[in-house]
């Protein structure tokens, strides 16, 4: 399977990063969102990153221009017509994703692969809504995409091995390291990371140590680059709470019961960095 043109649907945090790394690897990129301001913002962001690389002497000025020329934008999914793969990074809502994937199947050529960057939704369920469940796959990037090396590749129930292999190969071509994971809530990274953050919040809630002490302990004692509660503030306490609740529901195992500290902070509107307060107070800095 050869990839020449890559479609990216959704030009938000993840889509913009995915489009950037695909262009940097030399692929033609078609970036689509629902309104021109979203794609414009993403393209501006990419160009800003490339200009910075030029300023730092890490990229030639003409290279930045070449990369910019590789990216075309649209607000119409019909622009994906000639893409070999479309990577979807729109809102995390199963009904919207199913509707969009059905439409992508009708637009794209019969050999095109349809990939989803979903963090948690079922690839099998998304695939079942299309005319090609054997060619639908999870391609889970990490934030920020240009920095984070990992991609989790998740086959659905009917995804063929050659499609999985092709997506793993593409992942390497765009400078990432793929790992294959079975479809299961949280795949690998978030399945392990979220209960770890939850346990830190339980330790905090039990008054065993302050947020600063917990984070310091995990950084100096376990060599974590960032403490779990600072990480929780960065991701968003509401997001972490929702994931814990989802695991609890899906697995029916009380080991995923969310810390009361999450609920209390969410009720207070303290969602982390995005609201100025979470486990830490960012308004004072
Ligand atoms: P975001 O909110 O930053 O961007 C989503 C974009 O999709 C928006 O620009 C929105 O206008 C667009 N959009 C929504 N519905 C659309 C439609 N029907 N057609 C075209 N565009 C549409 O969201 P973000 O954070 O980039 O997340 C996107 C996906 O990636 C979600 O499935 C999320 O779970 C997943 N993800 C997010 C990570 C993160 O750290 N933010 C990490 C890994 C995966």
From TrEMBL:
GO biological process, alphabetically ordered: butyrate metabolic process; fatty acid beta-oxidation
Ranges in coiled-coil conformation: none
InterPro entries on file: 3-OHacyl-CoA_DH, 3-OHacyl-CoA_DH_CS, 3-OHacyl-CoA_DH_NAD-bd, 3HC_DH_C, 6-PGluconate_DH-like_C_sf, 6PGD_dom2, NAD(P)-bd_dom_sf
Keywords: NAD, Oxidoreductase
UniProt keyword annotation of Zinc present: no
Domain 3-hydroxyacyl-CoA dehydrogenase C-terminal per the UniProt entry, residue ranges: 186-282
UniProt xrefs under Pfam families: 3HCDH, 3HCDH_N
Pathway of action: Lipid metabolism; butanoate metabolism
GO MF terms held by the record: 3-hydroxybutyryl-CoA dehydrogenase activity; NAD+ binding
Domain 3-hydroxyacyl-CoA dehydrogenase NAD binding: 6-183
Residues of the site described as Important for catalytic activity: 140
Residues given in the record as NAD(+) binding sites: 10-15, 33, 92, 97, 119, 143, 274
PANTHER family per UniProt: 3-HYDROXYACYL-COA DEHYDROGENASE FAMILY PROTEIN, 3-HYDROXYBUTYRYL-COA DEHYDROGENASE
Family affiliation: Belongs to the 3-hydroxyacyl-CoA dehydrogenase family.
The protein's name in its UniProt record: 3-hydroxybutyryl-CoA dehydrogenase
